[in-house]
Amino acid sequence: MSVAHHVPAKNYVINFFVLMILMIATVVAARFDFGGANLPIALAIAITKTACIVLFFMNVRYGSPLVRVFAAGGFFWLCIMLAFTLSDYLLFTNVMGSPTTVAIP
Amino acid sequence: MAVVADRQIIHETEIRPRHYLNVNHSFWSWFFTTDHKRIAMLYLGTITVFFLMGGVFALLFRLELMTPEGDLFQADTYNRFFTLHGVLMIFFFLVPSIPATLGNFLLPIMVGCRDLAFPKVNLASYWIFVFAGMFGVGMLASGGVDTGWTFYAPLSTHYSNTSVFMAAMAAFFAGFASILTGVNFIVTVHKMRAPGLTWFRLPLFVWAQYATGIIMMLGTPVIAITLFLVALERVWGVGIFDPAHGGDPVLFQHMFWFYSHPAVYIMILPGFGVISEVIACFSRNKIFGYHFIAFSSLAIAVLGFFVWGHHMFIAGQSVYTGVVFSLITMLVAVPSAIKVFNWTATFYGGNVTLESPMLYAIGFMGLFTVGGLTGLFLAAMGMDVPLHDTYFVVAHFHYVMVGGMVMAFMAGLHFWWPKMTGRMYPEFIAKFNAVIVFLGFNATFFPQFILGWLGMPRRYHAYPEEWQVLNVMSTAGATILGFGFTLAIAYFIWSLFYGERAGNNPWGAKGLEWTIESPPTTHNFHHIPTVTEDPYNYTGREEVNVQQ
Amino acid sequence: MSSNSVPEIGPSTPYFAGHFEDVDQKIESDILGMWLFLAQEIMFFGGLFTAYSVYRHAYPDIFQLGADQLNYLMGAGNTMFLLISSLTMAMTVYYTQHGQFRKQLLCFLATMIFGSLFLVVKYFEYKEKWDHGLVPGLNWDPHTVDFAAANLTSPPENLKLYFILYFTMTGLHALHMVIGIGIGIAIFINMLLWKKYGPNRYMAVEMFGFYWHFVDIVWVFLFPLIYLI
Ligand SMILES: [Cu+2]
Q1: The model's pTM
Q2: Which residue among A20, A77, A85 places its CB closest to the CB of C54?
Q3: Nearest of C216, C39, C47, C166 to residue B228 by alpha carbon
Q4: Ligand 1 centre distance from Cα of residue B310 (Å)
């Protein structure tokens, strides 16, 4: 049973409190207006929380390299979809009343 | 293993050999079977039914296209026919064709284990597929769909008054069946390989199934959610793609093609795997460039996710994004070409014999090359403008899907049929049939290239008179093709009862599946094999004893 | 496979199905299979997140207005419930692996209870939206929304799009919760009546935990994106 991990239970509790603090941080941060930084701040906190859950609650931290690749793969593929789809919308002229970044010459 | 050993003792005391087919004849033993081989056979039967249904619709609308006027069917009926043909063939035949039948059957044997990693999940996959099939039948019973298999919004979400909901649900659930198959394949290849069976000793068929599994797992959920949103709009009348309140129909196309382009590779990669096996066996030669073929499968699976925008060049996509998609699309042709060159090189120095699987495989190589090269025309943004939505596109993807995948499926079926059923089909008729199918296919689809070049748009039931000759040729070809497939089904069924008993290795082929009985026992191997040599250990030109 | 005896199924002996060679192979396969399944789930929700990103980019003001209609304290409370249930779920797996059946049972019960609390809060949230006429398709009459004060540049009817996304995303998430609680009840019965899961047979619990944590992760993104910004 080499895979059975011997992680002390207190790790889970610490992880939980870190998550709670991050949750409060994201709520507090949203009360203030940082302008364009609102979204990046919220996303950064969400990604950190996800990392905490994946690494410690789901034990990927102690998993084999293969498990880590598989765990990262799904998130990475989502980024591909987001990046290419958004590239279309970011590079396109104003079709939906949106502020445009690049106008087609 | 102890259990297996006990059963083995029982087997040996019996006169008739026990194998996975006759181990138990009860209905429930099939209904609840977790044996990958039985599930493969169940899948084979089911997709054949859907293939025939899809084929009948194809023949019906080809019949309409015999004459320039829309005289046989109403435009509405015609729309339903081509849509049903597309939906049934893609979601219910091509996607599960090789992975769920040959893949299910052979993958555990090729990696030297007793079953897939999750046999119950495999069974669930089959029954989800049947459940999806019921929606498919419901879709037929409620009058069919007329949106084309692409379900483009807002036609599908708003304007069509046919049973889009049923069709979307059918594809939705069929998708989950293929996700489960994909997950099973990937885990099996990673964790269930026999001792000594390193990654580079795996048959190329396994590599191809693995690559397919990646696409199934990462692509299919996106179409599931997309169709879910379409269904939601059909049911509650509020839609995420509805421009009335700011929705964007082009977003539907993005999400749809994120799956549906990689799905094209779900529909061709497993075929590549089959061709690698067949070519090596009947050339009696080590496959040329094993590593290149193996990695090109993975390259296709990954790159295939970066090219979906080539379906949207004229859909209002950003030109800059279009350029990127166009370039990567051309890039994807490289691994495909690598494969074709390596197969061709495998002939060299080999002892090529033309058994029926080999005839199909050679047919595949020609037809796939034509299909692939015409794909480059369409990948070029400028060329795509006049050719988009013409018969050129129709001919292109039929050269890949039918000329590629269906030919490969036929090659694989003929190759492994003796292993799956323990019986030989009539070889002479099979060879004759391979030629019939090849000729019928070209007669059907080559004229469509010319028609598309001349500007005939797809999805219309009437056309100007000057295109009639080519259309009649195409319909005649479709009839020949239909005859070919019917003949194949007929002699396969015949062989089940009257076919000559095949030995364990009728082709003298290499590979773990040929070291066990035909048909295999429920647990495949009496002892888990230890692999000590590379795959395709054929001897080239040296004298080979084909029939054991 | 090393042993020659058929493994007895019970809490004290390693359990694995006959087609596996040994128990490590089974454990690794289960973990990999579960991660692949979760990758599939990521892409499933990912389609919705893509749609969200595209529309948010197109109508930032509408999304701000939509977020203002939601009760962020309810969302924060729900986040807390889910995080607590994730902790107790992790502890359940821990106690299962260490054979402490009483604690295992209690932790799992807590997981189910906090999961249910989440759904209760969700119910009140949905009910509030219904009363305010913010349910597209079924009850759409946004009389409580002050469009004039919002200074919109996008058409006001686009608010519908925001709420379609809101209901689809949170609804699918809630559906995952319901399915999770359904499976959880089955596991709980097995624990309670037969002490089915112990140090030698914990994969079912751990895999359920993976699913549960994943549902948590989806909410970790939904909460800020939908309620806060
Ligand atoms: Cu494509």
Answers
A1: 0.91
A2: A85
A3: C47
A4: 6
